[in-house]
């Protein structure tokens, strides 16, 4: 649906659908898409509606995340259900908005980004 040139996305966490990090590179998104599309392709799961639905969801996620304009729009305007995120997921998902604060002139290599990296290392153990 279109509304004032902004797309409203029915909430799906496309990054989770493609099993990639929120700051994944285009290459990582493409590789995971191919892996998942092959795994869930309807030809491999004949007469399985759940697999077909999963395959369609994967294609939908890739169509948004593989297009730089759609991905930016999704990242900025997606419907975020914050209660569905753990703290590390929340920080990873929104670090671009929280930490870089381009309007404030903070860069990606700021002290805050270093602290988030350290936090992620601690929580991954």
Descriptive notes:
- With 125 residues, the protein is mainly α.
- The protein has helices at 14-17, 26-40, 49-65, 68-77, 87-100, 111-124, and strands at residues 2-3, 6-7.
- It folds into 2 domains: 1-79, DnaJ domain (Helix Hairpins, Orthogonal Bundle); 83-125, no CATH class.
- It is built from 6 helices and 2 strands; from the N terminus they run E-E-H-H-H-H-H-H.
- The protein has a two-stranded antiparallel ribbon with strand order 1-2.
- Strand 1 (2-3) and strand 2 (6-7) form a beta hairpin.
- Helix 2 (26-40) runs antiparallel to helix 3 (49-65) and helix 5 (87-100) packs antiparallel against helix 6.
- Mean pLDDT is 76; it is low at 1-6.
- One of its GO terms (cellular component) is nucleus.
- InterPro entries: DnaJ_domain (IPR001623), DnaJ_domain_CS (IPR018253), J_dom_sf (IPR036869).
- Residues 13-78 form the J domain.
């Amino acid at each position: 649906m279109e509304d004032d040139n902004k797309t409203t996305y029915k909430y799906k966490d496309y990054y989770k659908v493609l099993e990639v990090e929120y700051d994944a590179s285009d290459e990582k998104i493409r590789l995971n898409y191919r892996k998942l599309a092959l795994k869930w392709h309807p030809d491999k799961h004949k007469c399985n509606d759940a697999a077909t639905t999963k395959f369609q969801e994967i294609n939908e996620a890739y169509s948004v995340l593989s297009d730089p304009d759609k991905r930016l729009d999704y990242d900025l305007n997606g419907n975020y259900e914050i209660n569905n995120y753990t703290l590390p997921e929340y920080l990873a998902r929104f670090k671009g908005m929280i930490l870089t604060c381009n309007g404030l002139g903070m860069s990606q290599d700021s002290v805050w980004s270093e602290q988030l990296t350290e936090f992620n290392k601690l929580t991954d153990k």
